[in-house]
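Render this sequence as a predicted structure.
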Amino acid sequence: MSKLSNLERCSVIQRKILIHSILYYEMNKTILTDAEFDKMCRKLLIGKEHTKNYHKTDYFYVFYDFDGSTGFDLYDRLEDDDKEYLTHLAQLTYRIWESKNKSKRKSKNG
């Protein structure tokens, strides 16, 4: 398996932050703790410092001034196509998480 470049890694983290922001702010659902979300934001900010061409990341147009303090306005910055795509990913992510957690609850109670 090939190793991701810093640029690719930042794009992946941006996508994860967007998905979890959509879950939390748009769908009123959460699967991460605040600490887990904050850790992901810190990883992006550190990655940004070490990425020469950060402006070439997939979602730079959304994260250009991101400081990690909140994700509440990220969805509104997305282009319509990205809103649709990332909302579908958020829905899928939640369904997978919910399915895994139902299985865990059943095995504990069963």
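Summary. The chain has a mean pLDDT of 94. Residues 80-109 form the longest helix (30 residues).
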